[in-house]
Amino acid sequence: MNIWGNVEELSARDFQTVRQVVYDTIGVNLTEAKKSLVISRLSKRLRELKIKTFADYFRFLRDTPDEVEVMFNYLTTNVTRFFREKHHFEHICSEYLPFLESQARNNGVKEIGIWSAGCSTGEEPYTLAMVLHNYFQHKNGWSINIMASDVNTEVLEKARTGIYSKQEILGIPYHYLKKYFKLGVGPNEGFFKIKKVLRDLVTFRRINLVSQEKYPAAGSLNLIFCRNVFIYFSRETRQKILGFFHRSLLPGGLLFLGHSESIGTSEGRDEDWLMLRHTIYKRIP
Ligand SMILES: C[S@@+](CC[C@H](N)C(=O)[O-])C[C@H]1O[C@@H](n2cnc3c(N)ncnc32)[C@H](O)[C@@H]1O
Known about the structure:
Shape: globular
CATH class of the largest domain: Alpha Beta
Strand order of the largest sheet: 6-2-1-7-8-10-9
Bound molecules: S-adenosylmethionine
Radius of gyration: 21 Å
Number of strands: 10
Number of helices: 10
């Protein structure tokens, strides 16, 4: 172990191997600048397994197929919070839902399908659930389906429990907190638990956005949230995924990206998307 508590230096060749596996499998682009981050995150895993060198870890990785998924759990960045970029939720309530209601008066369709792609520990899909439930609760016949996915199985496990610490619930406006959370009991004392009425609106699944195997059916979604995920992907990967998002949305459906992400002309085809506001895109036609 070296002075930083890391197991050892990662050789250039081994770093290249990790980069390639991660890029090929989940699309995350670990640049040279991320090397120390990779070392510190993987060192934790080595300590857990009581493995002393990266060379031994890579041998273990080769002999243990399930370990690749665990390695991805250590290498993805999962920062998130409730009501992150709250102007997105305001846009949905003030523009999109009234539009959907007016459409329903003509076609009778009262269903809304949403995908939170790269949902991390669940704060994003549960924020959507709160906002939509609150909006539709006194309106008859509406059905809300929120699919939430991530490649990281550990964050999904936490998301499924719907249990959050005092620190994690800080961004939730008080009336939502009061209405949709209950205080944890027993081992969950001091924590807050999402009420069943919201939990039932969200289905969590492991989906690797790069593999495109388990994407929702074409034309089945009103809204896709894929925020603060594209920043980890290369331009080619973003382009490919945008094409699939376009196909999954209903015509006129919306795509929400993170604050530092956009559909540049080099990424999305101009004729496919109309930018309504910064980071909010409408599927054309
Ligand atoms: C920074 S978090 C963003 C969470 C949330 N969308 C938000 O904006 O607060 C990025 C998430 O993308 C997930 N991710 C990275 N690569 C992925 C892939 N290939 N497929 C699905 N999810 C992926 C990570 O596991 C992580 O949970």
